[in-house]
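Supplementary notes for students who missed Thursday's class. We covered one full example, reproduced here. Read the sequence, then the structure, then the short commentary at the end.
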Amino acid sequence: MNGTGHGPGSPAFFPLLIKSLLTTPLQVAGDVEIVSDGVIRYSYRDLEDRLRRFGAGLARIGVGHGDVVAVMDWDSHRYFEAFFAVPMLGAVLHTVNVRLAPAQIAYTINHAEDDVIMVHADFLPLLAEVMPMVTRKVKLILMRDNPALEPDTDFQFVTSYDAMIAGAAGEFSFPEFDEHSRATTFYTTGTTGDPKAVAYSHRQLVIHTLGVMAGLGPMESSNRLHRGDTYMPMTPMFHVHAWGFPYVATLMGIRQVYPGRYVPANLLRLISEEGVTFTHCVPTIVAMLLDAPEADETDLSRLKMVIGGSSLPRGLAEAARARGINIYAGYGLSETCPVMTLADIDPGDEENIETRLKAGRPLPLVDVKVVDSEMIAQPDDGASSGEIVARAPWLTTEYVKNPLATADLWKGGYLHTGDVGHIDPDGILNVTDRIKDVIKTGGEWVSSLALESVASAIDGVTEAAAIGIPDPKWGERPMMLLVLATDAQPEQIIRDVRAALQSQISAGSLSKWAMPDEIRLIAALAKTSVGKIDKKRLRAQILQRDGN
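Structure (token representation):
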């Protein structure tokens, strides 16, 4: 069959570029508002003009196709605009994890080959620690909330964000190019070795955006995202493009709110004052919100909240539901762009906590399996466990400049997640643990997430972590680490946790080997830079403390 002539070079060719996500909202939602807390409010129509000015300003200082522009900012309208303008130029957006140690940040700047760093004035002291370790010559652009304030710094800036936006846009237009061009890069937050670079093309980001929309759209239940919602991220924008939801919200023409810093009182105020109805975050952020004094005075009954990054504990889900939050789990990794599955809560099943805790159904175009060590797929019977592997059009194709890690990631033709789980007969994925966090004891595998979910449901427990401690006889034995509320009764809570675990063991839901040898109370759980519980550090801390 002859080709249709619609490929590159044809007038009918329509490449999947980031700028294509703006076509629909500019046509149908021009007056819808975008809010950057305490700084600015403007419409989607204004956004188009701002992006042209932003792009013209970057081009004026020499940024072009293939150049790398790094961003160090709070979650603001500036970051949101960088999600679009930088890749729309054909440049690569490097979202810098400002919570990494200075040496690690310098490593990512060197590895990504940054040409420009856009830095908020608040992060100049951090950048001062980083730059002596940066081996590249980079241009600096200053960002600030108040253009009238000049920072006290020795850094020389080629321009400021405010100056670029104030500049004349003229007839500046963003170019067209190959949709497979790299659009973004960022670095994983693993607990060993140097961070690994994950990159995404324009095509991958556009298809991921469509995939998330297609997954949320058919939902009958109240947890779907729609044009009547007001969206606000509570996941850092440096972390997997804030899980891709700013792109989704933009394509849908939804009202958006960007909170700046993640301060509980401020987030709760914005939920109330701006009418936020849809957000996403890791479990620790939910716990932080619910524990804030302002939570008691905030109506959370309209808030829909996707939880990812780590498992949603039962106790936290129950506490959120008690406050009216429509909380539910999703699943994905830095390497999967990230969303692959979302809990789809059937009407009439709204109060079923179990449904909310599971990772949910795959988005359209996502092929998820659980496999054994020989890559043999396990049956979808709700019981047969294995490693979760996946394929989808938007999964990262490589760890940049790391062929050995890439080969390991994609062995057998599927992306290996490093997670253990099983799939129900109706296609619902349940993630039971990280392979590295499964507790191997008495010849059986015990899920640390299952133990944590039971403990988290006990009144007075604010956080729980189950870890494996080396044992000369059984290989490992579980230890439960608990963080308690200030008014909790420690001895009673420990008894309650043991009783709850024993009940699950007696019912056959947990192995007899699952009962921890010790339940230990600690002041705080070690966390990664994106708020996940860092079990590697916890194990090291316990072993060092106990002299092992």
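Commentary. Residues 37-177 form a domain with the Rossmann fold fold (CATH 3.40.50.980). The CA atoms of residues 2 and 10 lie 15 Å apart. If anything here is unclear, bring it to office hours.
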